[in-house]
Amino acid sequence: MFALLSMIVFSSQALFAQSIAKYAGEFISTGVGARALGMGSAFVSVVDDVTAGYWNAAGLASIDYQQASVMHSERFAGIVSYDYAAYARPYADDRAISFSMIRLGVEGIPNTTNALLDYGTDGIPGTDDPDGTEGNGQLDFGERLDEDAITKFSDSEWAFYLSYGRQLNERFAYGGSVKFLRKAFANHSANGIGFDIAMKYRFRDRWFIGANLQDVTTTLLAWDTGTKELISPTLRSGISTLVKLPFSESWLMPSIEFVTRTDGDRSFSSDGIGLGASFTSLTFGGELHVNDRLILRAGRGEVEPFSAGIGIKVRGATVDYSFGSVSSQENLGDTHRVSLLVDFNSGLWIE
Fold first, then answer.
1. How far is CA 169 from CA 3, 23, 125, 287, in A?
2. 217-to-5, 16, 52 alpha-carbon distances in Å
3. What is the per-residue pLDDT across 85-140, written as a single tens digit (0 to 9) for each?
4. Whole-number Å distance between alpha carbons of 318 and 330
5. What percent of the chain has pLDDT over 90?
6. What's this model's pTM, rounded to 2 decimal places?
7. Which residues pair with 143 in a beta bridge?
8. Which of 52, 10, 29, 27 is closest to 283 using CA atoms?
9. Where are the beta strands (DSSP E) in 55-187?
10. Less CB within 10 Å around the terminal CB: N or C of the chain?
11. CA distance 242 to 287
């Protein structure tokens, strides 16, 4: 299975290496759920809840009852808002479907293109343009801003996932997602469709292997201007284990994950292995469950050299918080995420 997924990744890389827009799909590479992000995003072999629609659709097969989740995050000192919502429903005992939504938005971006006044050679605003710079959107020598002419626009990026997971036997599960992407920037927009395929395997009872090949066919985003962007395939593969602790019914789940991107290195350091246009980086993390009520997490991801989080379970609801630090972007602030997961099997929801 791993050999097949890797072959698909590198075949796609060879076909599209000359036309890939490197960060066209950056907004969907951030990840979802404070639980996963608190573990450094080393989650592909761990996920067993509604967020599997994003991380590994095969994990949906672990869901026994309906679940819903929401998350809100603000990045870069509050400039960027990032929101997520998902719903999953099992059926036929061994399979489940889910619907997920991701939105990244930046509001109130100033547009000064038509707000520049050129004083010109006679000192009267806008009467002449000797240097040919009036209206170029840049504040050049001899120009000033007409604040009344400044307009604002927004940037929004959306992803909608329809996912399916099935338990083939007691050890092996598989799944996949179809995702619809939409970007809107000022008066222009782009649309695209992509596909993910995934698997999860349990061996020796407490060991798990997971893999998710995202954008398997390379995802095309077509703008109304005629411009096209391509999102190249990414292979996430990892292993995790469940360790029972000899006190208070507690347990620990450490996890490691390899992320192979065919659009190059986006990690926070040079750690990793490069091969042509591809780059494989290592992420790792873990979570400690105490009495099935309190969960502590920590990890190291591609972009965040340190992340940590905490979760609290109250009957059928779990509230998670995670913190992420990006050392190379200290002036832009750290990232905080809060998410809620509801399991509708709890007595909180049904008698």
1. 21, 38, 76, 27
2. 12, 10, 20
3. 999 999 888 999 999 999 998 776 666 666 655 554 444 444 445 555 555 555 55
4. 30
5. 50
6. 0.80
7. 118
8. 29
9. 67-75, 80-91, 95-111, 116-118, 143-145, 151-167, 172-185
10. C
11. 10
CA distance 287 to 271: 23
Which structure tokens are listed for 10?
């590198």
Structural domain spans, the chain: 2-105+162-343
| 52: its two tokens | 């599997």
CB-facing half-sphere around the CA of 6: CA atoms within 13 A: 9
Residue 33 confidence (pLDDT) above 90: yes
Question: How far does Cα 4 stand from its chain's mean position?
Answer: 24
Give CA–CA dist 136/115, Å, rounded: 10
| C-alpha distances out from residue 125 to 39, 114, 137, Å | 57, 13, 16
- Give CA–CA dist 194/18, Å, rounded: 19
* Domain spanning 2-105+162-343: CATH superfamily: Outer membrane protein transport protein (OMPP1/FadL/TodX) (2.40.160.60)
- For 26, 57, 65, 89, 253, the CA distances from 95, given in Å and listed in that order, are 30, 10, 11, 9, 24
| pLDDT higher at 304 or 255 | 255
CA gap 291, 328 in Å, rounded? 37
| Rg (the chain; Cα; Å) | 23
Strands 294-300 and 306-314, by their bridges, are antiparallel
CA distance 274 to 293: 41
3-state secondary structure of 238: strand
Per-residue model confidence as pLDDT tens digits over 262-304 = 876 555 444 555 455 678 999 999 999 998 789 999 999 988 8
